[in-house]
Amino acid sequence: CTTILIVSATLQDLNRTTTVTVNNTDSRAPFNDVNLYTLDQRILKTFQNPEHDGSQGQQLIKDLCDYKCFLEKMITHLEKDFNQKLLDIILSQPPQYIHFPYDNEQLKNAFSWSEDQTEYLDYVFESSFLLWKRLEQLREVKT
């Protein structure tokens, strides 16, 4: 029975694609396993129409953290080994969610969040915004 579970898990791992992997990422995921467009669209959709569903709120925080983590890894990578083409590709699809004016109270009520959770959302959102600006600065400095 244990052997079957191990084989099953191995087959699932082999069948993952880059797009699917985004649903299973955590902050330790390599940056090439993250589909930024998918994350951005999910975050934007949740900001635009939050449902009264705590799991959607948890997914929102996870997606924001994954996006932030990806940006941190990209900046670190580009600062060590600058690649103009890679930077241009990343900057060609800026996150749409950063420009959406989300409503803290609406999210707090929809997801039954505490004040700490909404403050954490603000922190991760602001960090992502600043990291994106840092990527834009890298382009200006390197060109």
From TrEMBL:
This is Uncharacterized protein. It comes from Cuerna arida. The lineage of its organism: Eukaryota, Metazoa, Ecdysozoa, Arthropoda, Hexapoda.
